[in-house]
Design brief:
The protein has helices spanning 10-27, 33-42, 52-62, 76-84, 108-115, 122-135, 142-157, 172-175, 178-183, 196-200, 221-232, and strands at 66-69, 87-90, 160-163, 166-169, 191-193, 213-216. The protein is an alpha/beta fold.
Length: 237
């Protein structure tokens, strides 16, 4: 069933409005440029909670992706199987007003505001599909799937990228978090160059700010990440 504006109550609309308004101001000068273009292409704004059918029409035309509803976190197998077909799962519920500053489990603001604008960017769209293709060759190998999950976490969820002379945010988990979007670029954060082996060796945490952020020298580096990942876990026929 597709999301419909009639499903949302007055508190939902207020939550979306407040989160959107303050987050746009927070990341205005620090977000990855194609993310901002994606927001514009999708027509996201504070006064309207996007409907899935509206989103799918736009991203379908731009990159061939579609989103589908999920109740919350889903297992890696289902997640990667769907992504291989350019389908991205999104929740349809919004946090409460009392949870504006922090929510451990991803809600619709995280999924839709944080992730969906990136699906309009061919570089991210192709990376996600490529990551899923590798994962689907190793669905029965927990070690490989965990490694791929960590790569996803430290790129699409909590990744930083060099743009010109500045470091910008492209990870959805940061873009949708007012606290972490400030912290990750502060002097308190530990930022290191992206290295595939280091990423795979670094467990991720969900209940606090990341202990390290991996920085791409360019978004084009994601192509090399995929190539090196495929070589590392190449199937011997």
């Amino acid at each position: 069933m597709q999301a419909n504006a009639l499903m949302f109550c007055a508190e939902d609309r207020l939550v979306w409005d407040q989160l959107f308004t303050r987050q746009i101001k927070t990341i205005e000068h620090v977000s990855y440029a194609p993310f901002k273009k994606g927001l514009e292409a999708l027509g996201f704004h504070a006064g309207h909670i996007p409907r899935f059918e509206e989103i799918n029409e736009t991203i379908g035309q731009l990159t061939g992706w579609q989103i589908y509803p999920v109740p919350g976190l889903i297992d890696n197998r289902h997640f990667f199987e769907q992504m291989m077909g350019r389908r991205f799962g999104s929740t349809q519920w919004l946090r409460k007003l009392s949870q504006l500053d922090y929510l451990e489990e991803p809600d619709m603001f995280h999924d839709v505001f944080g992730h969906i604008p990136l699906l309009t960017d061919p570089a991210i769209a192709e990376f996600l599909e490529g990551l899923a293709n590798v994962a689907n060759k190793h669905l029965d190998n927990e070690e490989v799937i965990e490694a791929i999950a960590r790569i996803y976490w430290y790129t699409v969820e909590f990744g930083l990228v060099q743009e010109g002379t500045k470091i910008k945010i492209y990870g959805a988990g940061i873009l949708s978090s007012i606290g972490e979007s400030d912290f990750c670029l502060s002097v308190r954060a530990n930022r290191i160059p992206f290295d595939l082996e280091k990423v795979i060796d670094t467990p991720y945490v969900k209940d606090k700010f990341q202990e390290q952020y991996f920085v791409l020298y360019s978004i084009t580096q994601l192509k090399n990440v995929l190539k090196n990942l495929e070589m590392k876990y190449k199937i011997n026929n």
